[in-house]
Write a structure and sequence with these properties.
The protein contains nine helices and 17 strands. With 324 residues, it is α+β, with helices and mostly antiparallel strands. Strand 4 and strand 5 form a beta hairpin. The two termini are 34 Å apart. The structure holds 4'-deoxy-4'-aminopyridoxal-5'-phosphate. The site of 4'-deoxy-4'-aminopyridoxal-5'-phosphate (PMP) has 14 residues, from helix 5. The site of 4'-deoxy-4'-aminopyridoxal-5'-phosphate has 14 residues, from helix 5.
Length: 324
């Protein structure tokens, strides 16, 4: 568990990071959040935070939607996160949870003119979905929150009641996850992850206008598929029945990473086991996020520690071993 938090402007012991029951965000779900993974690379003796700037860019956009004004720039949020991780001194994979919320205390539903706050904690984290190599899923009987009700692209705390309804229904019915449809019955995403389908040699994923969260892993997957795996990617609306006929299906997200879906509504997908594309993508993804590929490390992996092994040693070893 986390030992520290960034709370009310400074790093404090986690026990001191508490809010009143009168807090607006607790009463009305008026907060936005992020989820950022840190990956420990034992060879480099380094903790790499994956796409931290992209996560905070989305976070600040979510804030705009809820009229949340933070006194921090993107660069400052990044610095606070690195400071907290150094304080925790993690040498294992971890998950950072930034939260921006209406901290005003008292009764009254609205968004503007209220006191805002920022908090952050980070804890050790392994798998979010146990069955990453083969999840059995159902189509949820719930529908995804609509952009005209609670915008899914906002990563708004209150909207996760929708995700929780979807997830609990699936787990209680004996599935690992669920796929949720939009109000008009098209495929949207998982309870907390984006979805891709492999069909006719193409990668297909619902467009950002189908009430999905604009996932950073989704963007990563699209880039890796096009640039590294030579697979064309299409963003288009997907019908429910197309899922049953997919060659491969998978979820992606910061938490779930890349998870193969091997069954939808009792119908096996691609022979009921992880397919070759997902297998290849998973292996590439883990190399990228753990900082093993220099070109992507430079762009997407922010080192937390000064250097343990040292940048030069890592580069030397890469030249000798010839990796990346
Ligand atoms: N959709 C939802 C509803 C999510 O909560 C998440 C997790 N943040 C995702 C998709 C995946 O987004 P990302 O790749 O940015 O983590």
């Amino acid at each position: 568990m986390a030992r520290f938090a960034f709370f009310e402007g400074r790093i404090v012991p986690i026990e001191e990071a508490r809010v009143s029951i009168r807090t607006h965000a607790l009463n009305y779900g008026t907060g936005v959040f992020g989820g950022i993974r840190g990956y420990w690379n034992p060879e480099h003796e380094q903790l790499y935070v994956f796409r931290i700037e992209d996560h905070y860019r989305r976070f600040l956009n979510s804030c705009r939607m809820l009229f949340i004004n933070l006194p921090y720039s993107l660069e400052e949020l990044k610095q606070i996160t690195l400071d907290l991780l150094r304080q925790e001194a993690y040498r294992e994979d971890c998950y950072c949870r930034p939260l921006a919320y209406k901290a005003e205390e008292g009764i009254g539903v609205k968004l503007h003119g209220l006191r805002d706050a920022f908090a952050l904690f980070a804890e050790p984290f392994g798998r979010y979905l146990q069955k990453e190599e083969g999840a059995r899923v159902m189509i949820s009987s719930w529908r995804r929150v609509d952009d005209n009700a609670i915008p899914a692209r906002g990563k708004i705390t209150g909207a996760y009641v929708n995700s929780a309804l979807i997830k609990s229904e699936a787990l209680l019915a004996g599935y690992d996850e669920a796929i949720v449809l939009t109000q008009d019955g098209h495929v949207s995403e998982g309870s907390a992850e984006n979805l891709f389908m492999v069909r006719h040699g193409r990668l297909v994923t619902p467009p950002v206008t189908d009430n999905i969260l604009e996932g950073i892993t989704r963007r990563t997957v699209m880039e890796l598929a096009r640039q590294e795996l030579g697979v064309p990617v299409e963003e288009r609306t997907i019908d429910r029945s197309e899922l049953y006929m997919a060659d491969e299906l998978f979820f992606c997200g910061t938490g779930v990473q890349i998870a193969a879906i091997i069954e939808v509504d009792g119908r096996p997908i691609g022979g009921g086991k992880m397919g070759p594309f997902v297998k290849q993508l998973r292996s590439l993804y883990f190399d990228v996020v753990r900082g093993n590929l220099p070109a992507y490390r430079e762009r997407w992996c922010t080192p937390v520690y000064e250097t343990a092994v040292g940048e030069e040693a890592v580069e030397h070893r890469e030249r000798v071993v010839g990796s990346g």
